[in-house]
């Protein structure tokens, strides 16, 4: 009878451990999926959007800024004339520039974003290298990620930080080297033995963690730029968006011409 009980306990532990291992794999996969979305998919889609549509949007913003400045200058000149005061164009230019400095700063950030997008899209890793990097990271994370390994040693935690840094920087070769150099720390021979209660607790923690990750991934996919992921790769959709912005730009150019003429007449008075 004691032997039978021991066998049943062993089978229970093995079943729990198997279930725990499956949950670990699912958790690591979801972590990887989330990371790919945030650090690979999102920047690339944003860069693609900036290159295809963002350049015209910046031109649109530049025109809006110039028109806003013109309207403000006309208002200030008209106000001075109404008060029968001498128009100080230098002072007006300075005041308008100061008022719109924040808007211009935001515009410059958009210009920088487009420049960065061009660099990003011309320096992407090959699909094979990216896939290899993610596969290596998932393998190492199974043994070193704190969320799925509650009894990590100080040495293992140090190795995990090195792995994480190499992965974030896209260094495949460094990840390969780390997996060889720190083999003993990554997969020690004396694996910790968990009790049935400890395994059940880990299972519950991972189940909750998986649920949260699934919700986070869903939330990320519901945000820009993933909401236009299909459209930004559709040439017809891109052309339509460009046509809309070009039409707005044409209208703004016409308005700018009118305002410049009005401003010129005012300062001649």
What does this structure look like?
The chain is mostly helical and 269 residues long. The protein has one domain. The protein is built from 9 helices and no strands. The protein has helices spanning 2-82, 89-99, 101-122, 127-144, 154-168, 172-181, 183-186, 196-221, 235-268. Helix 1 crosses helix 4. The radius of gyration is 30 Å and the shape is elongated. The model is unreliable at 3-8 (pLDDT under 50).
How many strands?
Answer: 0
Derived from helix and strand composition plus strand pairing, the structural class reads: mainly alpha
H-E string: HHHHHHHHH
Mean pLDDT: 86
- Number of distinct helices: 9
**Major sheet:** none
- What level of helicity do the residues show? over 70%
Radius of gyration: 30 Å
Strand content: under 5%
Shape: elongated
| Alpha carbon gap, first and last residue | 111 Å
Count of structural domains: 1
Q: Unreliable runs, pLDDT <50, ≥5 residues?
A: 3-8
Question: How would you concisely characterize the structure shown here?
Answer:
The protein has 269 residues and is an all-alpha fold.
Task: Map the helices and strands.
Layout: H1 2-82, H2 89-99, H3 101-122, H4 127-144, H5 154-168, H6 172-181, H7 183-186, H8 196-221, H9 235-268
Helix pairs in contact: 1-2, 1-3, 1-4, 1-8, 1-9, 4-5, 4-6, 5-6
């Amino acid at each position: 009878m004691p032997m039978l009980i021991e066998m049943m306990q062993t089978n229970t532990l093995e079943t729990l451990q198997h279930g725990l291992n499956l949950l670990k794999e699912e958790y690591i996969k979801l972590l990887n999926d989330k990371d790919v979305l945030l650090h690979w998919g999102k920047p690339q889609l944003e860069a693609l959007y900036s290159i295809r549509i963002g350049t015209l949007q910046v031109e649109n913003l530049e025109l809006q800024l110039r028109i806003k400045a013109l309207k403000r200058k006309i208002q200030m000149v008209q106000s001075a004339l109404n008060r029968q005061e001498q128009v100080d164009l230098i002072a007006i230019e300075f005041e308008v520039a100061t008022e719109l400095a924040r808007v211009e700063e935001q515009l410059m950030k958009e210009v920088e974003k487009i420049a960065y997008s061009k660099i990003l899209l011309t320096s992407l890793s090959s699909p094979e290298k990216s896939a290899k990097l993610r596969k290596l990271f998932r393998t190492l994370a199974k043994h070193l990620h704190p969320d799925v390994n509650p009894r990590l040693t100080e040495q293992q935690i140090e190795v995990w930080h090195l792995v994480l840094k190499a992965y974030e920087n896209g260094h495949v070769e460094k990840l390969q080297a780390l997996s060889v150099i720190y083999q003993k720390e990554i997969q020690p021979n004396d694996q910790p033995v968990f009790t049935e209660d400890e395994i059940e607790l880990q299972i519950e923690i991972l189940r909750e963690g998986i649920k949260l990750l699934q919700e986070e991934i869903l939330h990320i996919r519901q945000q820009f730029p993933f909401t236009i992921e299909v459209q930004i790769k559709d040439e017809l959709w891109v052309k339509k968006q460009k046509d809309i912005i070009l039409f707005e730009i044409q209208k703004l150019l016409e308005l700018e011409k009118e305002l410049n003429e009005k401003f010129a007449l005012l300062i001649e008075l």
